[in-house]
Design a protein that fits this description.
Keywords: Membrane, Transmembrane, Transmembrane helix, Transport. The protein is mainly α and 425 residues long. Helices cover 74% and strands 0% of the residues. It is globular.
Amino acid sequence: MDNICVVIIIVVGVTEESSLLEGWHDVWLFRFLVNMLGYSTIIIPGYLLISYFKRTNYLETGSGICYPVIRTCVFGNEAKTGLLDDVSAAPRNEGDSGSSVRQAIKLIFCAAGLQASYLTWGVLQERVMTRSYGATTPEDQGEKFKDSQFLVFMNRILALTVSGLWCILFKQPRHGAPMYKYSFASLSNILSSWCQYEALKYISFPTQVLAKASKVIPVMLMGKIVSRKSYEYWEYFTAVLISVGVSMFLLSSTTSKHPSTVTTFSGIVILVGYIVFDSFTSNWQDNLFKYKMSSVQMMFGVNLFSCLFTVGSLLEQGAFFDSLAFMTRHSEFAFHAVLLSVCSACGQLFIFYTINQFGAAVFTIIMTLRQAIAILLSCFLYGHAVTIVGGFGVAVVFLALFLRVYARSRMKSGRRSAQPIAQKV
C-alpha cells in the first residue's frame, strides 16, 4: 500500500509540472521508461545468450572462430588473483620522490587540469540543458535541446576512444574479467548521467552540486543498514553538518523568474535517482577491481557498453538522427556538445593521474574546491540568486567536506605511524 502511495505521489507531481511542457515526450518519467525499454532490447537477448553459453558449458565444448570472443565476453579469466603477470599497478609517487619543485609543478598541473576540465564541463552542462539555441532577437525564444541521452552518448563515445588509445599506447595488466560484467556498471552509469542532465531542467545547478556533495549521507545510511558498518564520531558529525547546510540552502532559495533556478518535485526525484544509480556504479566497480584491472581498462569496458546501450536506444527511438539534425541547425550546440565530451574524457584521465601521483586525499580536496567554485561560477554566469542564509549553508557543507578529508588523512597517517611499532612487538 505504501508503494502505491509513493507511485501516486510521483505521478501527481510529474503531471502537475508537465502542464508546463508540451506532449508526453516532454515528461521526464515517460522518457526514462522509453529509454529503459530501449536498453532492455539489448539486455534481454544478451542475458539469454550468456545463460545459454554457461548452461551448455561452452568454455569446455566450444570451438571455432567465435570462441575467443565468446570466451572473453562471457567467461573471461575467472581467477581474481595473479592477473597482473609482469605488469603491476604503478606505485603512487610520494612527495619525497624527486625535488619538491617538481612535485609542486605536478600538483599545479593536476589541479589546473581538473579545475579547467570540470568547471568548463559544469558551465557547458548548464548552458546546453537550460538555454535555447538559434535566438536572433530578445523576443525570439529559439530552440532548446531536450535529449539528455544523446549527450550521454557523446560523452561516452569520446571517452571510449581516449581510453582505447591509452590501452593501445601504454601496456596494461592482462585482462581477466568477463566483459559482460561491465554492463551492470555501464547501465547504472548511463542512468546516473541521464538523471544528472535531466535534473537541470527542474532544479538549479548549485542545488545539483550540493546534492552531489551530500551523497555521503545516503551512503552512510545504506552502509549502516545493509552492511552493518560502523562509523567514527567525526563521520556522523560531518554528515549532520552537511545535512544542515543543504537544508539551509534549499529552504532559503528564492524563486526566480527563470525556470532553471526553481527547485521542483521532479527535480528532487531525479536527483534521488542520480544518487542511487551513482552509488551502485561505484560499488560495482569496486567489485570488478578484484580482477586487478587498471582504471583505464575499467573506463574502456564501462564506456564500451554505454555506447552500445545509448546508440541502440537512440536509433530505436529515432532520436539519434533528430539530435544530429539539431547539431546541423545549430553549430554553437555542436561545438558545446563536442567540448563537453572532451572535458569529460580529459577530466577522467586527470582523475587517474592525480590519484596515482598524490593519493585520494589530495584529489578530494581539489574536487571539493572545484564544487565550491562551480557554484560561484554558475551564480555569476547564469544569475542564480543565493540569500545570505543560503550562502552560509553552502559554506557549512564545504567546511564539513574539508573536515572529513582532514580527519580521514589524520586517521590514515596515525595507522601508518603505528604499524612499525606493531611489527616490533
